[in-house]
Specification:
79% helix, mainly alpha, elongated
Length: 191
C-alpha cells in the first residue's frame, strides 16, 4: 500500500512541475516566434524565473519526502537523488506530451520551422551586423529548413530528456542538502 502512495504522490508532484515547464515552453515558443525584441527580453526573465521555480519545487517536494524518514533511518543521498529523478521523469512526460501535441498537432512542425525562420530573419534584419553575417545566416536558414522533421515520439522524448537532465543536475545539489546520516543514539526525553 505504501508503494502505491509513493508513486501517486510522485506522479502528482511531478505533474505540477511538468505543467509549469509546459506553460514555460508555450510562452517561450510564442516569444521566439513573435520576433519581438521586447518579448525576447521577457523570455530571458521568464526562463530565469522558471529555473528558480523548478529548483524550488524539486527541493520542496524532496524535503517533504525526506521528512517521512525518521532520524534513526536517515535520508541517504541516493534516495533523495532517486526521488528527484522520479519527479523529473513524470514532469518530463507531461512536458514531452505538451511539446509534441503543440508542435506537431496544433502548429504543425513545418509551419513552426517557417515561422521560427521568418521571426529570426526579422530579428536579425534589424541588427547592425546582419549584412556582415549574411552568408552564414543564409547557410543556417538553409540547414534549418532542410533538417528532417522529427517524429512525434522524438519530440516527446526531447521533453523527457531535458527534464531529466535538469532534474539530474538540480538533484545533485538537492540530494546533498537534504541527505542526513542515521542517528544511532537519539536522546530520550526523561520526565
Amino acid at each position: 500500500m505504501e508503494q502505491k502512495r509513493f508513486w501517486s504522490v510522485a506522479a502528482t508532484q511531478g505533474g505540477v512541475i511538468g505543467l509549469v515547464l509546459a506553460a514555460s515552453m508555450f510562452f517561450e515558443t510564442y516569444a521566439s516566434l513573435s520576433g519581438s525584441v521586447g518579448l525576447m527580453g521577457l523570455m530571458l526573465v521568464e526562463w530565469i524565473a522558471v529555473v528558480v521555480l523548478h529548483y524550488w519545487l524539486l527541493n520542496r517536494y524532496t524535503k517533504q519526502y525526506a521528512a517521512q524518514f525518521s532520524a534513526e533511518e536517515g535520508f541517504p543521498f541516493f534516495r533523495g537523488y532517486g526521488y528527484v529523478l522520479v519527479l523529473s521523469l513524470f514532469a518530463g512526460v507531461i512536458l514531452g506530451l505538451a511539446q509534441a501535441l503543440y508542435l506537431h498537432g496544433v502548429m504543425g512542425y513545418g509551419a513552426y520551422i517557417e515561422q521560427y525562420a521568418s521571426a529570426l530573419k526579422e530579428l536579425l534584419a534589424s541588427s547592425p551586423a546582419s549584412s556582415q553575417m549574411e552568408p552564414m545566416l543564409k547557410q543556417m536558414f538553409t540547414q534549418l529548413e532542410a533538417a528532417p522533421v522529427p517524429s512525434v515520439l522524438q519530440t516527446a522524448w526531447g521533453g523527457v530528456t531535458n527534464s531529466i537532465l535538469f532534474g539530474g543536475f538540480f538533484g545533485l545539489i538537492i540530494a546533498a542538502v537534504q541527505s542526513r546520516r542515521p542517528e544511532l543514539f537519539t536522546p530520550k526525553n526523561e520526565e
